[in-house]
Amino acid sequence: MALLSKGMWVVVADGEKAMILENAGSTAAPRLVVLDKFEQELEANRDMGTDRPGRMPDPGQSQLSAMEPTDYQRLAKERFIGQLADRVNALAAREKGRRIVLAAPPQSLAVLRDGLSKPALEAVIAELPKTLTQHPLDKIGKLVAQDIDKI
Length: 151
Hints:
151 residues; alpha/beta
């Protein structure tokens, strides 16, 4: 059974907002404090790219098929999560022995996991596929503690 102990880090992210938090409270009463916070403002896809989707030749005479348009917002979110992973890697390398809980939507969690170094991955004790960035810190602490106690 995992517990949200004192000194443990909680990384909460989605594609637009991310926080690296530390539990300064106890296991019974977590009190999360912000170590680092990142935000990005996403533009609409129509504002990021104005080109029409490409076309590629099909087998057959003079036939072209449309290609799927680029999802610039998804790419921006993945780049943002990649930058968060770099920051977590740096913190994990500097402060060895810390345990980390990751909380992010499933797609962001996958990108974050792929970007983490081996020492950071070894420090991860739980992954929560949830969006918690819109909650206040005290509620994030309670929700994370509740979820990892079930593990």
